[in-house]
Amino acid sequence: MLPRQLTRLPTRLVGALLVALALLVTGCSAQDTQQATTAAPGRSTPAWARGLSTVPESGLPAEARTTLTLIDKGGPFPYAKDGAVFGNFERELPRQSRGYYHEYTVPTPGERDRGARRIVMGQSHETYYTDDHYESFKAVLR
């Protein structure tokens, strides 16, 4: 006859595996929830934003909100390259004809140059934010 500790081993192992699996699933979904904010309750995500993480305008850094205000007013912009055509060479945004997207600098405190943060606007007022110099974008819900 086997000692009692050995007969409980499979049960304990299965229990530990189930706990590990639950933590893995819960951890992944919590991270995804933090990364991808959805539209306000009762509001669906616009078609142009589908497939991207989203962020409400109020969830952007203060400097990005200031840049959006300048864009809405038509300037003046602090950087000569603000308003330049964004080529979408990384293909992170939906494909459009050249000249459809324009980019604007979002100042980064402590940076001496333009930094990595940008707002990219589409001709139909689609608004995108990147804080990693075009490696990823979030659709800004305004």
UniProtKB/TrEMBL annotation:
Show which residues constitute the signal peptide.
Answer: 1-30
Establish whether keyword Hydrolase is in the entry.
yes
- Asked if the keyword Signal belongs to this entry, the reply reads yes
Keyword annotations of the record: Hydrolase, Nuclease, Signal
Residues annotated as coiled-coil are: none
**UniProt cross-references to Pfam families, sorted A to Z:** Ribonuclease
Q: Which domain of life is it from?
A: Bacteria
Protein name as it appears in the record: Ribonuclease domain-containing protein
Organism (species): Streptomyces aureus
